[in-house]
């Protein structure tokens, strides 16, 4: 098992969440890939979008059906944000793109959770690699991450 998956597992258990991590050999790199593997709608995939506000990590957990409006995130933070490149994501989160989990970060990033996820149950989130996801609820994501529920959807 990868160190990244074990870090997510330890975070789930420490938060009092069951270990619901599942591995899908066909991959869960994109929201569509994950939905196909899990057998749910794309909207139920809680995708992780890493943004950069200078050196601060900003993690947006968005419904797989939505595009993130970085302008809304910048307005909430009161400063500009930009998409993070893959190397920076790996360096600061310890996760590769396609496997960035909402939990297991040290230190914890600033987290925004798509308000659209709150109407969906269950949701599935990355669990450390582009082949692992865990089943949860949006309410549990908020509880475990202390994320801010916000309108992050483009349009």
Characterization of this structure:
The protein is an alpha/beta fold and 155 residues long. Helix content is 28%, strand content 25%. It has one domain (3-150): YbaK protein, CATH 3.90.960. A hairpin with a 5-residue loop joins strand 6 and strand 7 (132-136). The model has no long low-confidence stretch (mean pLDDT 96).
CATH superfamily: YbaK/aminoacyl-tRNA synthetase-associated domain
Quickly count the helices. 5
Percent of residues in helices? 25-40%
Q: Let me know the average pLDDT.
A: 96
CATH topology: YbaK protein
Total beta strands: 8
Identify the CATH architecture. Alpha-Beta Complex
CATH class category: Alpha Beta
Distance between the termini: 40 Å
SSE blueprint:
Blueprint: H1 3-14, E1 21-23, H2 31-38, E2 45-53, E3 56-63, H3 70-77, E4 82-83, H4 86-93, E5 110-114, E6 123-126, E7 132-136, H5 138-145, E8 148-150
Parallel strand pairs: 2-6, 3-5, 5-8
Antiparallel strand pairs: 1-7, 2-3, 2-4, 6-7
Question: What are the salient characteristics of this protein?
Answer:
single chain, 155 residues, alpha/beta, YbaK protein, 8 strands, globular
């Amino acid at each position: 098992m990868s160190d990244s998956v074990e870090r997510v597992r330890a975070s789930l258990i420490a938060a009092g969440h069951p270990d619901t991590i599942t591995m899908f050999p066909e991959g869960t790199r994109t929201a569509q890939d994950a939905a196909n593997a899990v057998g749910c709608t794309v909207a139920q995939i809680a995708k992780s979008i890493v943004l950069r506000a200078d050196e601060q990590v900003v993690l947006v957990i968005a419904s797989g059906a939505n595009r993130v409006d970085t302008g809304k995130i910048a307005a909430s933070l009161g400063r500009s944000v930009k998409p993070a490149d893959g190397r920076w994501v790996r360096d600061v989160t310890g996760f590769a793109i396609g496997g960035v989990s909402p939990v297991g970060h040290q230190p914890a990033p600033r987290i925004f959770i798509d308000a659209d996820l709150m109407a969906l149950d269950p949701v599935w989130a990355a669990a450390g690699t582009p082949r692992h996801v865990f089943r949860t609820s949006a309410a549990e994501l908020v509880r475990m991450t202390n994320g801010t529920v916000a309108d992050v959807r483009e349009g």
